[in-house]
Amino acid sequence: MYKKPKEIVKSGVYKYLKHPLYIGLVLNWISINIFIGNVVVTSMTIVTALFLINIRIKKKKNIY
């Protein structure tokens, strides 16, 4: 039996995020560090996430 390949979703939230687990892990990491009070790690996590988002946007626009 041959199964028809699944379509890749390219609209909505999945246009920017390929798997919901990724954003869940980042939000979990940020919230744990806010709860603990570790400002350095929280800010580093936010900066890293924004940097990765920026790279992804620039890749789509073929700037790199």
Describe, in plain words, how this protein is organized in 3D.
The chain is mostly helical. It has one domain (16-60). 61% of the residues lie in helices and 0% in strands. Helix 1 (20-36) runs antiparallel to helix 2 (39-60). The longest helix has 22 residues, at 39-60. The radius of gyration is 16 Å and the shape is flat. The model has no long low-confidence stretch (mean pLDDT 78).
Low-confidence stretches: none
N- to C-terminal distance: 42 Å
Q: How many DSSP E strands?
A: 0
Gyration radius, to the nearest Å? 16 Å
DSSP helix count? 2
* Sheet with most strands: none
Give keywords.
mainly alpha, 64 residues, flat
Q: Secondary-structure map with pairings?
A:
Elements (H helix, E strand, L loop, with lengths): L19 H17 L2 H22 L4
Summarize the structure.
The protein is mainly alpha-helical. The chain has helices at residues 20-36, 39-60.
